[in-house]
Structures are given as C-alpha cells and as structure tokens.
From TrEMBL:
<dbReference type="Pfam" id="PF06849">
    <property type="entry name" value="DUF1246"/>
</dbReference>
<comment type="function">
    <text>Catalyzes the ATP- and formate-dependent formylation of 5-aminoimidazole-4-carboxamide-1-beta-d-ribofuranosyl 5'-monophosphate (AICAR) to 5-formaminoimidazole-4-carboxamide-1-beta-d-ribofuranosyl 5'-monophosphate (FAICAR) in the absence of folates.</text>
</comment>
<keyword id="KW-0436">Ligase</keyword>
<feature type="binding site">
    <location>
        <position position="95"/>
    </location>
    <ligand>
        <name>5-amino-1-(5-phospho-beta-D-ribosyl)imidazole-4-carboxamide</name>
    </ligand>
</feature>
<dbReference type="InterPro" id="IPR023656">
    <property type="entry name" value="IMP_biosynth_PurP"/>
</dbReference>
<keyword id="KW-0658">Purine biosynthesis</keyword>
<dbReference type="InterPro" id="IPR013815">
    <property type="entry name" value="ATP_grasp_subdomain_1"/>
</dbReference>
<feature type="binding site">
    <location>
        <position position="28"/>
    </location>
    <ligand>
        <name>5-amino-1-(5-phospho-beta-D-ribosyl)imidazole-4-carboxamide</name>
    </ligand>
</feature>
<keyword id="KW-0464">Manganese</keyword>
<keyword id="KW-0067">ATP-binding</keyword>
<feature type="binding site">
    <location>
        <position position="227"/>
    </location>
    <ligand>
        <name>ATP</name>
    </ligand>
</feature>
<dbReference type="Pfam" id="PF06973">
    <property type="entry name" value="DUF1297"/>
</dbReference>
<comment type="similarity">
    <text>Belongs to the phosphohexose mutase family.</text>
</comment>
<protein>
    <recommendedName>
        <fullName>5-formaminoimidazole-4-carboxamide-1-(beta)-D-ribofuranosyl 5'-monophosphate synthetase</fullName>
        <ecNumber>6.3.4.23</ecNumber>
    </recommendedName>
</protein>
<dbReference type="GO" id="GO:0016879">
    <property type="term" value="F:ligase activity, forming carbon-nitrogen bonds"/>
</dbReference>
<dbReference type="InterPro" id="IPR010672">
    <property type="entry name" value="IMP_biosynth_PurP_N"/>
</dbReference>
<keyword id="KW-0479">Metal-binding</keyword>
Length: 357
C-alpha cells in the first residue's frame, strides 16, 4: 500500500500535538536530531537493532528518551500503532532510507518530516538529473555509452551508499575492469575543482528571510567529505605508480571537514538552492526541510552541482552547536534543532500537515 499525503494528514489531525515524539534510526545524524528535539521540548525515540547502541551512554544530551529495539528494520511496520499512540514523527536521514529500503519507507504509515515523494527523484539518477537540469543547474556531462569515455569520468551507482563502489575511469577498458553490471549506474565527466557540500533548509511555512514563491530558504552550513582512501592514497605515488602496485582509489565517506565559502559567492549559492526548491515545487509539490547540494567550485568561481541529497546529511554533524552561517540566523542552531523548530512552529501555526507526508 502506498501511503498518501491525505492519509498522513488525517493521522496528524488525530495526534496530541502537546506530546509529539521525534524518532529516527540510531545512525548517521541521529545524535544531533535527538539533541535538537530535546532542546525544543520534544520526546525522542531511537530505533535500533538487537540492543541500544552503548555509545549513546557517552553522549547523554544526544541519547533518546527511549529505544524501540528490532531484530530487523522491516519489523518497524509491526509497531506502527504503538508509534502512533506516542504521536510519533519520523525524521528520515541517509541511513534511515538505506537500512529501511525504499519499499518499506514508502509503505510506512507514520507521519514523516518532509515530502517522501522526493525519494524517487533523488535516488534515481536520471530523474535527479531531470530535476536539476530543469532548474537550470549546471551539471557534469553524462556519457551514455562507455565506449565514448575519452577522459576522466566518475561512475556512480543509484541510491545512497556513502560513496561505496564509486570509481574513476579514463578509458573503456578501465570502466569494464571495475563496473558492476548488476547495478544501475551513471557515468559523469570528472570536474576539476574543490568539493563543497552546501547544507540548506527550506521552510514552506516561513514567510521571512530569503523568501521564495512560497516559504523561505536558509543556508545553515557547508562541509567537505573525507573519503577513504582517495584523500590520502596519492601520498604513495603517482596514479601510474599506484595502478602498477594494484592500488585503486575508493570513495567511501569516513568523515567530514568544515568549510566556509567566499562571501562573494553567497548570492550564487542562494540562487542555486532557490532554483532547486522552485523546480521541486513544480515537479512533486516541493521538498521540505534540510537538503544538500553536492558541488564543485572551479577556479573560475563557477559552481557545478553533481548531486542532491534531499534530507539531512552527515556533514551537518560538524555543527551541533551551530556554524558560521547558522549562528547568523540564531546562535547554537544545528540542522537537527532546525528540523525540530520547524515541527514546533508548524504545531503553533496548525500547519503540521504541510511539512509531513
């Protein structure tokens, strides 16, 4: 059964809005989600497998009030009524979508922060490209036929995998040596520049600040991802020497590093975010809340977007106490707290159905 927004709206209307519980899977950005929810006065619930993660005991401010322990994530569907009784709102993040799987996520009969229709548009790379190109965003060229590879390209598989399996090829032979033909993939031309991950927040219910056709756009932070082993491997020698030694760069994300951009680039950064939001409104009713544009800044000060994550990203974990950007909105404002604040404001305005699906 596909859960409709109208159905979720009815569920939300049945909730005791004075006793909302914020829930997510204990992974990815859950510490700051729980911390932010607590700061805004919400109860919290962590979803985990087999037993509560012990490391939460080391971070009492990020530890949820209670845990829902499952043997496998699909069992969450057996606890829907229990969670509804707790007036639960689910906060999706990258691990949530990956662990639950899109089929369970779509069928989950619980209010979810944001627009769950965005999953299809961000996880299928051809649809993602349709969305971003339609917004007037400059993306790397795509090569449809691997025989036409005539320079460095990045091969990416569909879905959120934290960079796992991605690789660079320079020739058709490189491509054939490493490709997993059982998976759906995209071949993008490699862009030389500095990678910036831009963390935005879009509120459809806020009417102040950097306003759009509906709602308001915020820039909360930026990061750069630390990838293993690509970020350190070239200390061992040139690409040719590495290849001869049988060492292949990999792009699994292991952490994040903070960044700020030149202030003169902020107008373009906001323009890119606004275009993406406006196009999402046209295509599927709009994405809601936090999202990240994954970009390359070139030496000509152009910004090229190679991907979007339409949810909270792990790079925001750098800024649990605020960032150089969010501190200019409100001190100590993390993305996790901004999500909780949006839910709190929606409750006050009687617009909770506008930010959930």
């Amino acid at each position: 059964m596909v859960i409709t927004k109208e159905h979720i709206s009815d569920v939300v209307k049945s909730y005791d809005l004075e006793n909302i519980t914020i829930a997510t899977i204990c992974s990815h950005s859950s510490l700051q989600i729980f911390d932010g929810a607590r700061k805004e006065g919400f109860k919290t619930l962590g979803i985990c497998l087999r037993e509560p993660p012990k490391y939460y005991d080391a971070f009492p401010l990020g530890k949820p009030d209670e845990f829902l322990v499952l043997n496998k994530y699909s069992e969450l569907l057996d606890h829907i009524e229990e969670l509804k009784a707790k007036n639960t709102i689910i906060i999706p993040h990258g691990s949530f979508v990956a662990y639950m799987g899109p089929e369970i996520f779509v069928e989950m009969d619980l209010p979810t922060f944001g627009n769950r229709l965005v999953l299809e548009w961000e996880s299928i790379r051809k649809k993602e490209r349709q969305w971003l190109v339609g917004a007037g965003i400059h993306m790397p060229d795509v090569i449809e036929d691997p025989h036409n590879i005539d320079g460095p390209v990045m091969i990416k598989y569909d879905g959120a995998h934290g960079g796992k399996g991605f690789f660079i090829a320079k020739t058709y032979e490189d491509f054939m040596e490493h490709i997993d033909t059982t998976k759906t993939y995209t071949i993008q031309r490699f862009i030389v520049g500095t990678r910036y991950y831009l963390h935005y927040f879009y509120s459809p219910i806020k009417d102040t600040g950097y306003t759009l056709s509906k709602g308001s756009l915020e820039m909360l932070s930026m990061d750069r991802r630390v990838e293993s082993n690509a970020d350190e491997i070239f200390r061992l020698g040139s690409p040719k020497e590495l290849l001869e030694a049988g060492i292949i760069p990999t792009y699994v994300v292991t952490g994040n590093a903070p960044l700020v951009a030149r202030e003169s680039l902020l107008p373009l950064i906001f323009e890119l975010g606004a275009r993406v939001v406006e196009e999402s409104i046209k295509l599927f009713g709009g994405m809601i809340g936090s999202f990240c544009l994954e970009t390359v800044f070139t030496d000509d000060l152009e910004i090229k977007v190679f991907e979007i994550s339409a949810r909270i990203v792990a790079g925001t974990n750098l800024y649990v106490s605020g960032s150089p950007y969010s501190d200019l909105v409100e001190e100590n404002l993390s993305t996790g707290r901004r999500i909780a604040r949006e839910i709190k404001n929606a409750v006050k305005l009687n617009k909770l159905d506008e930010i959930t699906s």
